[in-house]
Amino acid sequence: MRKNIVAGNWKMNTTLQQGVELALEVKNLLTEKPNCEIVLGVPFVHLASVVDAVKGSSISVSAENCADKESGAYTGEVSAAMVRSTGAQYVILGHSERRAYYSETNDILKEKVLLALKNDLKPIFCIGEVKAEREAGTQNEVVKTQLEKSVFNLSSEDFGKIVLAYEPVWAIGTGLTATPEQAQQMHAYIRGLIAEKYGKAVAENTSILYGGSCNAQNAASLFANADVDGGLIGGASLKAADFKAIIDAR
Ligand code: PGA
After folding, report:
1. Which residues of 114-145 are buried (b: 16+ CB within 10 A; e: fewer)?
2. How far is the CA of 237 from the centre of ligand 1 (A)?
3. pLDDT tens by residue, 10-58
4. pLDDT of residue 35
5. Is the CB of 93 under 6 A from ligand 1?
6. How many helices (H) and strands (E) does the chain have?
7. Residue nearest to atom 6 of ligand 1 (CA)
8. Angle at the Cα of 23 (from 37 to 172), degrees rounded to 5?
9. Domain count of the fold of the chain
């Protein structure tokens, strides 16, 4: 059976010290075994320290990006192998902020996914439409293209290692959450595409997270949907108590 996952995406927030403090707060709030996997997506420079801080807990750590090249003369870049060597197990790829502000195309993301898998990192691969696409009713085609161009090239064994996150761009950081019905519709559509490509068993085993203004108040109604297997949480993951409330909603 597929995993339920609640993942935080800290984005470009917290100094190293604040980040370690936040990770420890989350760890200390988890007094009982949670009923989902918990992942903290943190800035590169925090990775090794946060891995250390959450040792002995059920929390996994994720990077928020990795390079599309293996190694070499790429000043300032961080490779998948470097991320893995910190003890991190996941990497968020294809986030709409990376696509929009750093020109990450479907082709670049395809390379990143391959390098992540080659280096034993599990990609949390983000897909989703912008507001104009939703208004034009083209959200399904947009998401289908993103999948076809960046991850449907994978073998079914490799595809089985990835987690998907449906993040409607109009809902990210806007306070404008998708309704539970909109989320369920899209998640079911995505699972159907996976079933067509890889078969029903792979589709049933793929965790599909929802992201976009998911918070302590609306998490339970989003997670109650059959095809919503958890969340990718931005703003609300920066406060340990809010993040814990979302974990409890799963
Ligand atoms: P948000 O961000 O929860 O702040 O909307 C979600 C994300 O970007 O992953």
Report:
1. bbbbebebbbbbbbbbbeebbeeeebeebbbe
2. 9
3. 999 999 999 999 999 999 999 888 889 999 999 999 999 999 999 999 9
4. 86
5. no
6. 12, 8
7. 234
8. 70
9. 1
pLDDT digits (tens, 9 = 90+) for 91-116: 999 999 999 999 999 999 999 999 99
**180-201: pLDDT as tens digits:** 999 999 999 999 999 999 999 9
User: Residue 16 belongs to a domain with what CATH number?
Assistant: 3.20.20.70
Domain that holds residue 127: 5-249
Are 90 and 41 spatial neighbours (Cβ–Cβ below 8 Å)?
Answer: yes
What is the C-alpha separation between 183 and 245, in angstroms, rounded? Answer: 20
Question: Is the overall model pTM greater than 0.90, yes or no?
Answer: yes
Mean pLDDT across the chain, nearest whole number?
A: 97
Q: How far away, in angstroms, is 233 Cα from ligand 1 center?
A: 5
